[in-house]
């Protein structure tokens, strides 16, 4: 009976470990998918910005040209 209980405990531990590894793989898969989606969104935004620049000078009408900021004393 004792060895049967040990075997039951081992089997339960293996099942728990397998479930944990499945969850970990799923989390990694989700993070990768989110990273890919963010890269796609960034690429689309960059492409849209390049197209906007190609259409005109990239500035909104009536906007002043930006001047570089100088260092301020603390």
Automatic annotation (TrEMBL):
Q: Which domain of life is it from?
A: Bacteria
Instruction: Give the residue ranges for region: Disordered.
Output: 26-74
Task: Please note every region of biased composition (Basic and acidic residues).
Answer: 26-53
| Low complexity biased stretches | 58-74
Name by which UniProt lists this protein: Uncharacterized protein
